[in-house]
């Protein structure tokens, strides 16, 4: 089931949209904290966002830019401010489509279906994993933290993926080595230590000191 996040401050419109999407078999959620849209986006991990332009605190263009820093999921702007300038702004900010209010709900659903089909028919779902404000994009092999974006090596990505998938739990060194080298053959234990030490230095460079913690004699962990 695809999850759709509705970023709309008009309760009537957001309720109608949510009900319509649920009728079509989608899971939908409405933003409740307009000052922390990114936090709710990360927690909900949707496959598509419907975004209004005029919002409390920050406008939709701001949030579109912030989402694009960590994800390539489809974004549809739905706004009564539908002049050419806003349309151009929306596309330039990374939006995939624009719907003018008042809109026909059938048109909205048709556009959503088309975008989801184009985005996910030939690829796996693009997910993100998060801890302490650091966001790992599984589709891009990147880590984002406070506007810093780190392109990860294959080993760095695998280390962080298994740790975040087991967030707040200790992952054994053996499990990490099997993830890295996909083999039960003997791998020098020091090789993992070297990889983790080098990766920690890169994480520190973007402000993530002690992000990966050692549990002596067992393995590694990350968590809030």
Description:
This protein is of the alpha/beta class. It has 8 helices and 12 strands. It has 2 domains: 3-120, Response regulator (Rossmann fold); 128-221, Orthogonal Bundle (Arc Repressor Mutant, subunit A). α3 (60-68) links the parallel β3 and β4. The protein has a 5-stranded parallel beta sheet with strand order 2-1-3-4-5, with helices on both faces. A 4-stranded antiparallel beta sheet has the order 6-7-8-9, with helices on one face. The chain has a 3-stranded antiparallel beta sheet with strand order 10-12-11. The longest helix has 17 residues, at 189-205.
Can you lay out the helices and strands and say which pair or pack?
Layout: E1 3-7, H1 11-23, E2 27-30, H2 37-44, E3 48-51, H3 60-68, E4 75-79, H4 84-92, E5 97-100, H5 105-120, E6 128-131, E7 134-137, E8 142-145, E9 148-151, H6 154-165, E10 171-172, H7 173-181, H8 189-205, E11 213-215, E12 219-221
Parallel strand pairs: 1-2, 1-3, 3-4, 4-5
Antiparallel strand pairs: 6-7, 7-8, 8-9, 10-12, 11-12
């Amino acid at each position: 089931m695809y999850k759709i996040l509705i970023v709309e401050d008009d309760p009537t419109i957001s309720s109608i949209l949510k009900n319509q999407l649920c009728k079509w078999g989608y899971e939908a959620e409405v933003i409740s904290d307009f000052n922390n849209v990114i936090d709710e986006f990360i927690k909900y991990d949707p496959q598509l966002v419907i975004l209004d332009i005029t919002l409390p605190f920050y406008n939709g263009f701001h949030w579109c830019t912030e989402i694009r820093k960590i994800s390539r999921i489809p974004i549809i702007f739905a706004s009564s401010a539908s002049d050419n300038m806003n349309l151009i702004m929306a596309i330039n900010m990374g939006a995939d489509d624009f719907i003018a209010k008042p809109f026909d709900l059938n048109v909205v659903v048709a556009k959503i279906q088309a975008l989801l089909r184009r985005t996910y028919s030939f690829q796996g779902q693009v997910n993100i994993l998060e801890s302490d404000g650091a966001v790992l994009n599984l589709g891009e092999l990147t880590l984002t933290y406070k506007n810093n974006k780190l392109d990860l090596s294959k080993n760095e990505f695998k280390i962080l993926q298994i740790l975040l998938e087991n967030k707040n739990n200790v992952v054994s060194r053996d499990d990490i080595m099997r993830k890295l080298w996909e083999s039960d053959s003997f791998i020098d234990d020091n090789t993992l230590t070297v990889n983790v030490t080098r990766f920690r230095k890169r994480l520190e460079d973007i402000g993530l000191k002690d992000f990966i913690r050692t549990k002596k004699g067992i393995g590694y962990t990350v968590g809030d």
